[in-house]
Design goal:
This protein is mainly β and 384 residues long. The protein has 4 helices and 24 strands. The radius of gyration is 23 Å and the shape is globular.
């Protein structure tokens, strides 16, 4: 049946609800999507499907990107030891709504009483150029809505914050986990901010932080429901899940949405599922691996090899690292493996690199070989 002009107008203004992709929710999808002018979701890897570094990392006592792309464990001080994983889902409400993966942390060594300055949180960050639709710092500033699926053995109230890194401002919202070990969907609303615009560049402008545990330095204030100059004491004032208090504790998240405007669970725009290849390419703007490239022995005594390769465009010129010791070979005839890890970038930019890998022995100078792809790779990092 053709829609009348009135029907179309109602959909655009949000007057007519439409089904939300089989989730059982109701949403004013056309209104929501009209406020998100880019075709793709603001949040990258929001279904936790891409995990380039690893699917599990154990014994973590410091912050870092360990598994799922674009999600970082942020730690200061002594506040437990953690296993970080890309969890595969096979049941539960999040799985029933299309999410096969989650970002999960498990406490493996507890800290029952963290020092005043210690903290544990999970964060993700965004470039300013991808946030201009929020019109922050203008008289037309838009509200923010953050939604996500969360599961923990802990119940209670926790705080999630938005931090404006360009203007040192913040705002918070609370959410409650009602049932232990159960996937629950949360929707958090944040006010608009007419003070301080996001820089229109490739640097970090917005930080989203889920606070999970911390000392008194972060609990003695009040959760800000309006944007304010950042005060550390307000960061976890709404409550703590005390995640580091027991080795029984775990916390997981998936299906994250960041939307322009204010929505409830019944008006939230539908989740934008991405093709895995598109999702991976967006993640590779910040981190990617080089597992195969032509290299040339380039040192008397055969200790150094140089190579060059084109890469998927990255946010900035990357820094190089490696996963394990690298092996190069002569068309599969003879292998040369590093005695110890050593790699550097000789030249390049965010679309192509020249690199040097050292600490080999026995190679013939000017010999053409290849970097053998496998579990050992060159890593390129342009994270925010």
């Amino acid at each position: 049946m053709a829609l009348s002009k009135i029907d179309v107008a109602n959909m655009v203004t949000g007057a007519t609800p439409v089904a939300n992709g089989g989730t059982g929710q109701t949403t004013f999808a056309a209104a929501g999507l009209s406020k998100r002018p880019n075709a793709k979701s603001i949040w990258i890897n929001s279904n936790m499907a891409v995990s380039q570094r690893a699917t599990s990392a154990t014994g973590k006592t410091a912050g870092g990107y360990y598994t799922v792309d674009r999600i970082k464990l942020d730690i200061s001080g002594t506040i437990g030891t953690w296993t970080v994983a890309q969890e595969s889902l096979t049941s539960g409400d999040a799985f029933n709504n299309g999410f096969a993966n989650a970002y999960r942390i498990d406490c493996t060594s507890a800290t029952a009483s963290p020092a005043s300055g210690a903290f544990l949180k999970v964060i993700s960050s965004f470039e300013g150029q991808d946030l201009q639709m929020f019109k922050k710092g203008t008289s037309n500033a838009e509200k923010f809505t953050l939604s996500f699926w969360v599961k923990s053995n802990r119940t209670g109230t926790a705080q999630v914050n938005l931090r404006d890194m360009d203007n040192t401002r913040m705002i918070g919202a609370s959410y409650s986990i009602s049932s232990a070990n159960t996937w629950e969907h949360k929707v958090c609303n944040f006010a608009a901010d007419t003070t301080g615009d996001f820089d229109d560049d490739t640097a970090q402008s917005l930080l989203v932080e889920w606070w999970l545990d911390g000392g008194s330095d972060y609990t003695s204030g009040a959760m800000p429901t309006a944007w304010e100059a950042r005060a550390a004491a307000d960061s976890m004032a709404a409550g703590s899940l005390d995640m580091a208090g027991s080795t029984d504790n775990d916390w997981a998240i998936t299906g994250v949405q960041l939307e322009v405007g204010e929505y409830s669970s019944t008006t939230l725009p539908p989740f934008q599922f991405e093709d895995f290849g598109d999702n991976l390419a967006r993640c590779q703007r910040y981190f990617q691996k080089v597992g195969a490239a032509v290299v040339i022995a380039n040192h008397t005594g055969g200790t150094l090899a140089n190579g060059a390769t084109k890469i998927n465009p990255m946010r900035a010129n990357p820094t190089a690292g490696q996963t394990g010791t690298l092996t190069i070979n002569d068309n599969g005839v003879e292998n040369f493996t590093q005695s110890s890890e050593s790699i550097s970038l000789a030249d390049g930019n965010n679309e192509a690199i020249e690199f040097g890998i050292d600490n080999f022995s026995g190679m013939t100078n000017r010999r053409v070989m290849r970097l053998r792809s496998g579990s050992e790779d060159i890593t390129l990092d342009a994270e925010l």
